[in-house]
Amino acid sequence: MEKSFISFIENSIKKNWDLDALTDYKGATLQYKDVARKIEKLHIIFENSGVEKGDKIAICGRNSSHWGVAFLATLTYGAVAVPILHEFKADNVHNIVNHSEAKLLFVGDMVWENLNEAAMPLLEGIILVNDFSILVSRSEKLTYSREHLNELFGKKFPKNFRIEHINYHKDQPEELAVINYTSGTTSYSKGVMLPYRSLWSNTQFGFEVLPLKSGDELISMLPMAHMYGLAFEFLYEVACGCHIYFLTRMPSPKIIFQAFAEIKPRIIVAVPLIIEKIIKKNVLPKLETPTMKLLLKVPFINDKIKHTVRDQVVKAFGGNFEEVVVGGAAFNQEVEQFLKMIEFPYTVGYGMTECGPIICYEDWKRFKMASCGKAVPRMEVKIVSPDPANIPGEIICKGDNVMLGYYKNPEATAEVMTSDGWLRTGDLATIDEEGNVTIKGRSKNMLLGPSGQNIYPEEIEDKLNNMPYVSESIVVQQNGKLVGLVYPDFDDAFAHGLKNEDLEQVMEENRVALNQELPAYSQIAKMKIYPEEFEKTPKKSIKRFLYQEAKG
Prior knowledge:
By secondary structure, the protein is of the alpha/beta class. Among the domains are: 23-170, Rossmann fold (3-Layer(aba) Sandwich), CATH 3.40.50; 447-546, ANL, C-terminal domain (GMP Synthetase, Chain A, domain 3), CATH 3.30.300.30. 36% of the residues lie in helices and 23% in strands. The strands form eight sheets. A five-stranded mixed beta sheet has the order 4-3-5-6-7, with helices on both faces. The protein is globular, with a radius of gyration of 24 Å.
């Protein structure tokens, strides 16, 4: 079997030539042949601006059709793509562009407003993603090729551009394809070097387990600068011949809800936060009535009601999907129990940027609640523990998906990669006889109790987040005591006539109630209210390192 990622893309473009490929939601649609034409035009620009195979090309902007085209053009040319999250602060973007030695930068209009080209001296040029116009050119050849692009294109394809003209770069399994900078919850970023075998294996995994076919429609909600969104809302779908809609604005639950209803996607790939918000805002309130609670306890009526409720939830997600794949963070237990109870087709996978991203997955029909699936094809997973079924240990993995290392950072690479190719994930988990992996926390988040007990803050936060008027929380350790930092649901509180001072009282009541559910060593000593949301990484996990010293 040929393990070529680029041939997946090349074959799909040829096979699906006349089908719709990429649509900016509420905007224009590109068919596969349009994508191919734009790729060729970008190749002409690359060639004329002196980009060679192996050179780096950075892309920073909100998800859009043109973002996708720029990414595909980079790889099919033989250059290395450096996707950068559009939410990064300007100096982060400058650093990544410089550190990766990118020759060109594709940039979205919103991002460009805050950047400073003088801070990125290595770039040959900066191109606006929206229309591929040149914002900054440091070479006459680049300026010339953009101004005469249609003429150069016409010379290259004098009798029209056709399927048989497509002939892309031939990738090798160990060749570098993408450098993805983990914003991570650490204070600085590392460039993960993903080879073509990782892109191929992640895409091949899509063909093996995800039920998509040519012409299926779906929505891209996760940032494409992040491997999870890139691999499973874009690359696999393009290889499949699907039609992808990009939510080009901030994907708020309201916009997502509306898009689900209109597009009715065939598969939904999401982070827990999105699913939880839609269920908490649109479904749970209807079930919280006393009558409903009572009815759910009666066995016969129960099943009928469950079906009605399931239909409502299914409808909330467009009603046409095979399954909802959740990843990026742990599910809230209460929401997960609810979904399991109504037999909602969801599954939780596990991965990390360093594996581009997938490590564990299981089909929703066989999925074990609270786990994150089993090792995926071409990957081995082990738990480093004297008793992996009962005592959590670090997850280590090895296989086709694993990165080459961190770009220009051998020390950081040596910290996580063993000499025989195992990657230390930094996550703690147990594994059962069937191979189901259950995450117990990030090893770097783990706190030690008074007698050396392991405290996983995520488990306490999970309980705390279900308490009245708690929107989100972090548990930190200060002077040997645990403190709960809470960002309250102000809208809900004010709607119920509470004032700020009442919230203090409510949080104290929450603390007492929470401690009744916790062992003595992980009791919360006090609560602190935060006036605004906690800062998040692209994966929407809270940047814990910012809050360790929280005063109050």
